[in-house]
Amino acid sequence: MSASRQNPAILIAEDDPGSRTATRLFLQRFGYRVGEATDGPGTLREASLGRYDLVLLDLGLPGLDGEDVLLRLRRDSALPVIVLTGRSEEQERIRLLDLGADDYIVKPFSLPELEARIRAVLRRGQPQPASGRIEHGDLVVDRHTHRVTKAGKPIELTPKEFDLLAFLAANPDQVFTREELLP
Length: 183
What we know:
By secondary structure, this protein is an alpha/beta fold. The protein is about 40% helix and about 20% strand. Strands 2-1-3-4-5 form a 5-stranded parallel β-sheet, with helices on both faces. It is globular and about 50 Å long. The two termini are about 25 Å apart. The model is unreliable at about 1-5 and about 125-130 (pLDDT under 50).
């Protein structure tokens, strides 16, 4: 896990501000560190930084829907994902679990049940990616130490520049619009 077991970090990917805020405040009461994303590209950007232990993923995200986000997360990492959605059909739940969701909760849901499910998924101790390092030729991006080297020489970047480079390096051969790259 990228965070300590005592204070796991949860990324809430939810476009509804009320739901996102209520979930964040509730989880913070239990000592979770909470980050937020409001759209699909932002969720991928945040998740690629290696700061989170689990993602709460709404399927109805703008920019890139939650299912596509789940597929990209599964392609690149073993970061646990709990899907939160209003879609309650059994076939839909089975399909998303088969695509790699670790759990699936139908809205509206109980916040205490959500927290219990988070504990259960984290308890499983799914492995994170073997390394927080992304290498492309002689460029190395280390998401854990926030260091970048080119041909072995350090490159100084602002935090925003680092976040953008880490996101692009984690999503090679993809084109993003300006809007997708801006927070």
